């Protein structure tokens, strides 16, 4: 009978060891999952920041292009006014 009791105690201890090992593995898995969640959150944050910068750069580029077009229009207008003024000066000189 004592050998049966020892066998049962041994089985109980083996089961307890197995259960504690599984609990430790589960805790390790939880910490790995938490680390993975943190990495994913950090990556999402970085990608979001990069996307916001890209949008800002695109908007700044569009504004710069609009400003360039406005400068070109003003330059053309100044050139036209200058040409008309030069024609007027030339006509005045010819008449005198």
From TrEMBL:
Organism this protein belongs to: Salvia splendens
Keywords assigned by UniProt, alphabetized: Signal
Signal peptide (residue range): 1-26
Recorded superkingdom: Eukaryota
The name this protein goes by in its record: Uncharacterized protein
């Amino acid at each position: 009978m004592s050998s049966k009791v020892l066998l049962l105690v041994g089985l109980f201890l083996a089961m307890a060891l197995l259960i504690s090992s599984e609990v430790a593995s589960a805790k390790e898995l939880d910490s790995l999952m938490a680390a993975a969640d943190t990495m994913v959150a950090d990556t999402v944050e970085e990608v979001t920041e990069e996307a916001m910068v890209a949008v800002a750069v695109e908007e700044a580029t569009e504004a710069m292009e609009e400003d360039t077009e406005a400068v070109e229009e003003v330059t053309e207008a100044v050139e036209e006014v200058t040409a008309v003024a030069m024609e007027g000066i030339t006509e005045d000189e010819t008449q005198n």
